Amino acid sequence: MFIADIKKDFYDVVANQRVALLVAADIDGLCACKILQALFHCDQIQYTLVPVTGWQDLSTAFLEHKEQIKLLIKEDDDLGVPTYDDIFRDEDEEGEEEGEGSGNESDEGSEPSGKRRRFDEGAIERRIERQRTKRQWEARRREILFDYEQYEYHGTSAAMMFFELAWVLTKDTKDMLWWSIIGLTDQWVHDKIPHMKYVSDIATVQRHVSRHNHRNEDEENSLSIDCMRISFEYDLRLALYHHWSLYESICNSYYTACSFKLWTLKGQKKLQEFLADMGLPLRQVKQKFKSMDITIKENLRDVIEESSNKYGMKDIRIQTFGVHFGFKNSFLASDMVHAAAALLESTERDENDPTDNFIKALDSLSRSNLDRLLSGIDLAKKKLIAIQQTVASCICTNIILSQGPFLYCYLMEGTPDVKLFSKPLALTMLCKYLLKAFIHSTRNKRCKLLPLIMAAPKDVEKGTVIVVGIPPDSETSDKKNFFGRAFEKAAESTSSRTLHDHFDTSIIELKSEDRSKFLDALITLLS
Amino acid sequence: MDPSEVEFLAEKEFVKIIPNFSLDKIYLIGGDLGPFNPGLSVDVPVWLALNLKQRQKCRILPPEWMDVEKLEEMRELERKEDAFTPAPSPYYMELTKLLLNHASDNIPKADEIRTLVKDIWDTRVAKLRLSADSFIRQQEAHAQLDNLTLMEINTIREFLLDSLNCMYKLRSNLQPGATKGQFGDY
To answer: Which stretches does UniProt call biased (Acidic residues) (chain A) (predicted)?
Structure first.
């Protein structure tokens, strides 16, 4: 069901009922969930929170709660629906015969059927004509649906949608604004939206930020230091650099690591040159950022931008937001995304229950759970280091093979930290970094335009691997991913035992024995 | 008495809020609470103000005494005088804590106010301790302290009463002809 006016059609309907909130396991969903929870608390609406990790989970949860609850709200960041973000399901869901596509397409779909009904009383010729138009309409519908389902891409962040709802209800607070910023930044960090969309969404959010800041900052009535302040930052694209040392951050952020090619000796030397060029002593750069010399920190961003332009990194700075509360807590939105993602998919020994991880990640997003957030940042650091090391070893041992229409890489079971990569978000991040690194390290021009498929062992006992496909890397890509359909078709044609459970259809689980025939089918399909 | 009980009693005090919803007059056991109209200020007890603030249905206005200059004057006065000066409000400590924890974005210069109130509290409690100390030491029979608030009294109550009891027991043991059984108490 698609909603035109979010307040009337959605919130007012929900306001007096008991609601089940099924939330997908990604950061944007988490943020949207926090915003909704805050809204529900304000209006004392009862709700049940159920984390789901895939379509199967979704259906079991739906069946469990079916008797008690009539309306469900499922939220994840939007996959493949061109215009609307909420997928709102009713128990008596009718089969959507009239086309499910975007506004335009459904109009086209329903129009011929409307005409069809008007011809009800008629002669035989009319009946024949009806059948013909019906067939045409069916064919067109199939085509529209195929186009619709062929590519998968992401629309506006769900957290931002819910913030707009809160704003319409004038119940928006800085906390909610911050959560919507985190949701948007999650889409950017995990490369789900194109750069242009990110920039335009930032502009939208910036309006809200200035509205909130303007409301509260006054010369005479300055705000308590404990209140949350959100500020616009044009900051460096170095992951977690405020909570780490500058050197480590440069080594482990994919942008800088790929530009310098830090897996080669030459790259390391270039990095040293870069640091020397900026006049930053190694001792300062290798110690914790917070303890760096103040004189160095003052102009750091400009100095780095200037030098990085010389080394070919034109986009070292990115527009983002930061939050400050209390005297010592300041975080960038991307820091929080990394921390929450690391908590969500943590593979620490005693934390293997996905619901537990979900709750921990959800907690880390609120201001009062700083130690949770800090532990998340530590986990994120480990994850980034692991990714960097895996990328370096993959490139150096040349295990990326070109299979014709795509590149393929398989992580062996003995690779260090391979447990970390059995989770979808971490594996997708690794995939992206690996592709970028590969493009920088290879001389083959054709290979630079190929997509990458990566497989890693998921569950050793059951013998399954998790397979992820990402589109080719290009500056102006619109991030449309066609691997969903491709995987389905390949699985059908070879009758491999696959599980297309994840909400993101380009991530599937596969039995390891079927790996080779699945790959062959994919090669034939895509060439 | 537990400090949380004192805080509970403090929540009955009235404070001005500006609601953003409208509601007719409500009739509660403790009294009537006037009709709520968006944008118009209305007096409500602190417990209701905090609940509405947490549900983002109102904006709390700081009470009159919660102003930096007034508090600075009171602090200076308190430091000069030996006796207790009238407190900003009979529940100033609790109200400061409640309002600054939940509604610090509605109160200008919240950090300075917190520091000033803490200074006033420290001065008063120091005077109280001094006075209790001299009372016990000189074995006075009665004393009178004006302008104390319930929270301050509650802070010193247990200690003062216990120590007076101990002193009494010690004194009665020193009297000649004391019965032997009394030593067993310790």
So the answer is: 92-110
